[in-house]
Amino acid sequence: MSTLSELHRAIGGRLRCSDAPGSADPSPLGPVQSDSRRIEPGNVFWALRGPNHHGEMFLDEAFRRGASGAVVSDESPRPEGRWMLQVSDAQQSLETWAQWRRRRSMAAVVAVTGSAGKTTARQMIDAVLESRLRGTASPGNFNNRIGVPLSMTAIEPEHDYAVLEMGASAPGEIAELAELAWPQIGVITCVGDAHLGGFGSRQAIARAKAELLAALPTDGAAVVADDPLLREAAGRCAAPVVWVGSDDRCDLRATDVESARGRLTFTVDGCEFCVPVWGRHHLTAALCALAVGRMFGIRLEEMADSLRAFRPMPMRCDVREIGGATIIDDTYNSNPTAMRAALELLRDIDAPGRRIVICGDMAELGEQSISLHDEMGRQIVDLGRAEWLVACGEFSHQVVQGACAVGMPQGHAISCPSVDQSVPYVCKTISPGDVVLIKGSRKMCMERLVEAILGEKEQEAVA
């Protein structure tokens, strides 16, 4: 654990604390938090600045929740018994502190990116490594210029590994994050249609993901999902590349792949795996985890045990029964690639009732937003085999239009400008025996519909 004295020496600034001037508390620092709502006793509050607020606005809440001290950019009142470190730029100081933590550890950094599946891959990699080794992994969706350095502040000298998730919405962002984190192993899960507004094409997305490969040292390694665009981009990698997938050309290949009733089963080199997840699309994440685990010397049989106990994060293909209906809660985020995978899961789930899709806008698709939402509507029918649709958001009309163009009756497709306006239709539409996919981009907060359905069914049960 680091101390306040080390923090002060690493990032500089003006330290104010209860001790004599120039001294600092030698006791260990707690974890760093930039969200005052997540502060726990002993945490360090890092007051970052955003486009609409300054972190200093939330100092009172952070200290009330038990923060031991804070890093700030402005002169701010210091409560008795707490310390405060004033710096010129809180964001830059966070990155400086993250790299200081990175330098003093021998941990191998595993960086994970991809248009879809990177969070699950990061979780699975951590699951197989933590069975034998000491390390840390990004908490939640900490994959941007703020989240990555925050994750790095948890790296300790005794750690063997650190798994960091990296996202991007424009060219150059992955390269910047890699320069910050110095990864030894790079993992790319897929190239899809996410953030097309910032990239313009899938080819540009592939080049952006390959920025991670270009950042790897010659004595490092890459784990890459089998994809033609990624095979083209892999020439930028000076490190050896391990290709994963179910194709004969892959270095780590899955056979006998099946997905049913919340279990993904497959075989790698004679070892059988059973992972408690819904959907075949989780295969890539599992194979990436196995490839990384092998690099750390972990046997397939040991990793099979780890993945057998795997539990995915909430709102990611979380399948449960509510009021007799099967709800696929995939509300965390959405893009065309992830939506196709979710529709395949909807298609493959057996149900005595109807298949229903409740979807929200897919964000950051730029000029292709209209055409891709129309295409999503068509896939809801052709791929997901849905019989009813409730679409929410700015592009809901395009989704309904696409679904009706390939055979969905107009009376079965409802367009709502907002999520709140869709609630009455959603609750009225779902019946016992139906299987329902709920999915949309993060800004849509589609989880509100899951909560509304749960509340409605609870009221019905009481009545």
Concise account of the structure shown:
With 463 residues, this protein is α/β, with parallel strands linked by helices.
Give the rounded overall mean pLDDT: 94
Helix amount, in percent? 25-40%
* Total strands: 21
Number of helices: 16
User: What is the molecular shape?
Assistant: globular
- The separation of the N and C termini measures 55 Å
Low-confidence runs of at least 5 consecutive residues: none
Q: What does the main sheet amount to?
A: 7 strands, parallel
Radius of gyration: 24 Å
Portion in strands: 15-25%
Strand order of the largest sheet: 7-8-6-9-10-11-12
Structural class: alpha/beta
Overview of this structure, please?
There is one protein chain. The protein is of the alpha/beta class. It has 16 helices and 21 strands. The protein has helices at 4-11, 59-64, 90-103, 118-129, 147-152, 173-181, 196-199, 202-214, 228-233, 283-295, 300-308, 336-348, 369-382, 396-405, 419-429, 447-462; strands at 14-16, 32-33, 44-46, 69-72, 83-86, 108-113, 135-137, 161-165, 185-188, 221-225, 241-245, 252-253, 255-260, 263-268, 271-275, 318-322, 325-330, 355-359, 388-392, 413-416, 435-439. The protein has a 7-stranded parallel beta sheet with strand order 7-8-6-9-10-11-12, with helices on both faces. The protein has a 6-stranded mixed beta sheet with strand order 16-17-21-18-19-20, sandwiched between helices. Strands 1-5-4-3-2 form a 5-stranded mixed beta sheet. Helix 6 (173-181) packs parallel to helix 8, helix 12 (336-348) packs parallel to helix 13 (369-382) and helix 15 (419-429) crosses helix 16. It starts with a helix and ends with a helix. The mean pLDDT is 94.
